[in-house]
Amino acid sequence: MVSQQTQEKYAELALRTGVNLEKNQALMVNAPIEGADFTKIVVRKAYEMGAKNVHINWVDDELTLLKYENAPDEVITNYPEWRVLLHDNFAEDGGAVLNIRSTNPDLLKDIDPTRVAKANKAAAQAMKNFRQYTMNDRIAWSIISIPTGDWAQKIFPEKSREDAVESLWEAIVKIVRVDQDDPVAAWDAHNATLKTAREVLNKKNYQKLVFKAPGTELEMELPEGHIWKGGSAETEGGVTFNPNMPTEEVFSMPHKYGVNGTVSSTKPLNYGGSLIDNFSLTFKDGKVVDYQAEQGGDTLKHLLDTDDGARRLGEVALVPHESPVSQSGLIFYNTLFDENASCHIALGKAYPTNLEGGSAMDETQLDKHGVNDSLTHVDFMIGSEELDIDGVKADGTTEAVFRNGTWALNVKG
Ligand code: ZN
Ligand code: ZN
């Protein structure tokens, strides 16, 4: 097992750098039952830091699967009202939310994708109000992961369950910089690097990005007033937090009507417990008009059919191929990690905070500015060491942003 001391450091990092918990603030933690030991450390530390209440929502893969296998459709498609109220009340009270995400990527592989799609959609619809709190940075929130047995064995199939969990702990600890003497200070430095990169891109103010790689030829307009973000974010109340740990990306939004061409995935996508792999999407005026998938085609179809916005893009993120996640050489089958090994784009809702004044705009205004809306937001990976990206400026000049999967642009300021 990874040492108690290391777990304490990780828990502390999640509370300080992740959600940046304040005195007398409430904390909600979504955690796997298999990670109860780690979760208890988080809870103890949160109270030590002055949390007024820590509320845990336990999740468990086996129980989730049993529900999918046995519950009638009406249960699957009815997201409980009390759960919505719990989240809404919590957010209104200014609580912070820590998600510990460690699902088995193959959990729902034998469940009818239609059933899964219905459940995902019902949950997304019900949680629409709560999502405004997170996607507009109205509250502090963070996503981290800890190893669980099934997930670890998916990554290390040749190892025993125990060894696989140990190996995954080692990989995660390194990637989230908990192996360093002072992880909080290491994250401060990392956030400063990402901040410089996004400031360089904001100054460039590209009108268009052009992606070229095997199976990819994509032209992507960026809306006027788009903002590159990355690393730490700030709540409306001025609290700095890190939505994702790890995070290696700087990201902005594509124009919802301005994407043309074809893009191919470079890593498998774990979508709500089902894998979609080796797929490509073809866009016309921002909308997916054709798609192919070697694995998980049905799941991809359901994802695209969620609503109109699910066929358009809501995020573009640049991650150099030599990021620590990429250097681990592992495929995690978990977007939190895989997206930070690779450039990626997202189908579905854009973050309004990626547009100047976007947080204060209503749906009509957002649409006018090219900001996509949807019930869903799903990142998928398109980066590789063969990816080149050009940036096209307002005066029509073109410059290299990425070559061979890494920065060609000087983003060190
Ligand atoms: Zn992203
Ligand atoms: Zn995303």
List the helices and strands and how they pair.
Elements lengths: L3 H15 L7 E7 L3 H13 L4 E7 L1 H10 L2 H4 L4 H12 L3 E5 L12 H14 L1 H8 L5 E4 L4 H7 L5 H15 L7 H22 L3 E6 L2 E6 L7 E2 L2 E2 L5 E2 L8 E3 L6 E6 L4 E3 L2 E11 L2 E9 L1 H8 L8 E6 L5 H4 L7 H4 L5 E5 L14 H6 L8 E5 L6 E5 L5 E6 L2 E2 L6
Parallel strand pairs: 1-2, 1-3, 3-4
Antiparallel strand pairs: 5-6, 5-18, 6-11, 7-10, 8-9, 10-15, 11-13, 12-13, 13-14, 15-16, 16-17, 18-19, 19-20
The protein binds zinc ion (ZN) (2 copies).
Keywords: Aminopeptidase, Hydrolase, Metal-binding, Metalloprotease, Protease
Protein name: Aminopeptidase
Organism: Virgibacillus profundi
Structural class: alpha+beta
For the record, the count of structural domains works out to 2
Distance between the termini: 41 Å
Bound compounds, each kind once, are:
zinc ion
Mean pLDDT: 96
Helix content: 25-40%
Q: What's the number of helices?
A: 14
Shape: globular
Quick one: biggest sheet?
A: 9 strands, antiparallel
As residue ranges, the low-confidence spans are none
Total E-strand runs: 20
* Strand coverage percent: 15-25%
Alpha-carbon Rg, integer: 20 Å
